[in-house]
Specification:
The chain is α/β, with parallel strands linked by helices. It folds into two domains: 19-90 and 189-252, Periplasmic binding protein-like II (D-Maltodextrin-Binding Protein, domain 2, 3-Layer(aba) Sandwich); 98-184, 3-Layer(aba) Sandwich (D-Maltodextrin-Binding Protein, domain 2), CATH 3.40.190. 39% of the residues lie in helices and 21% in strands. It is built from eleven helices and ten strands. It has helices at residues 30-43, 52-61, 71-76, 120-128, 144-150, 158-162, 176-184, 203-217, 220-226, 235-245, 252-267; strands spanning 19-23, 45-49, 66-70, 81-91, 98-102, 111-115, 136-140, 153-157, 172-175, 188-196. The strands form two sheets. The protein has a five-stranded mixed beta sheet. Strands 7-6-8-5-9 form a five-stranded mixed beta sheet, sandwiched between helices. Helix 1 packs across helix 8, helix 4 packs across helix 7 (176-184) and helix 9 (220-226) packs across helix 10. Residues 1-5 have low confidence and may be disordered.
Length: 280
């Protein structure tokens, strides 16, 4: 008595079609991904993992029914999508997994290599920093040594950023989430869960996603230990990252930050028109 409530999925009749749910497998998504994968079939989901940018393309093409996608990709197709309430990946201040490494002062940079797997971070880069109008952005594979060998700056995201050591003399490191908060005072929403038009994400499935999110938060230590891709990183650092730096609720602060980001994307020509956020 008085112990934690067990994670019990909602059971769906066999005749109910499964929904294809895309989600990336970076560490920051795993508190949601792990419980979802364990009970997906019983809850009426088929889990599909891919990179954030690939998931955005697959949602747009109809290859998945709902997906965790970069927030800027939601803005670009806002008329065709609806947001799943109260779930996202966000941060407020320093996060450590969206980093710009620069060899020169920002105003002198004319070429930036960016991780090909993300798009929100690229939009944020253009908004936050005073690059010259002729600065070129080059999406490439995330290998820091080759990125900096060929370009004046490089942007690294996700798990790879957590493995970076001392970048060495002459390299300035900017945390984009920290810089966003310094400039705006708002929470930054990196990714949202969007559903295509015509897909019925019923109340039971919505509740299941919330239940999975809460379950994952209780299992941070286990999730960190199981994420062997980051076995070389101090587990205390990884636990602190998931418990204190990443925010999973899409509430008032996150909605305000997401709205502000959409307005800035419009002002900078990243999206063609202003949008309004639409929840299911």
């Amino acid at each position: 008595m008085g112990g934690p409530v067990p994670f019990t999925p909602f059971l769906f009749p066999m005749t109910t079609p499964s929904l294809r749910f895309g989600i990336h497998d970076f560490l920051n998504a795993r508190p949601l991904l792990v419980p979802l994968k364990e009970k997906a079939s019983e809850a009426g989901f088929q889990i599909v993992t891919d990179t954030p940018s690939a998931l955005a393309d697959r949602l747009k093409s109809g290859d998945v029914d709902l997906a965790m996608i970069p927030s800027v990709e939601y803005f670009k197709s806002a008329d065709s999508y609806r947001l799943v309430p109260d779930v996202c990946i966000a941060s407020r201040g320093q996060v450590g997994t969206v980093l710009l490494l620069a060899k020169k002062p920002l105003a002198e940079i004319t070429s930036v290599a960016v991780d090909v797997r993300s798009r929100t971070s690229v939009a944020l880069l253009k908004i936050l920093f005073p690059f010259s109008s002729d600065t070129k952005i080059h999406p490439v594979a995330p290998d820091l040594e080759s990125m900096l060998a060929e370009h004046a700056a490089a942007m690294i995201i996700g798990d790879r950023a957590l493995t970076l050591g001392d970048p060495g003399p002459g390299i300035t490191v900017y945390d984009l989430s920290e810089e966003w908060f310094r400039q705006t005072g708002k929470t930054f929403v990196h990714a949202v869960v969007a559903v295509r038009q015509g897909i019925n994400l019923d109340r039971a499935r919505q509740d299941f996603i919330q239940q999975a999110k809460q379950e994952g938060r209780k299992r941070i230590k286990e999730i960190v230990r199981a994420h062997t891709e980051l076995a070389r990183v101090d587990t205390n650092v990884l636990e602190d990252y998931l418990e204190n730096k990443i925010r999973y609720d899409l509430k008032a602060d996150e909605m305000a930050g997401l709205t502000h980001f959409s307005h800035l994307c419009h002002e900078h020509g990243i999206i063609p028109e202003k949008i309004s956020l639409q929840l299911i």
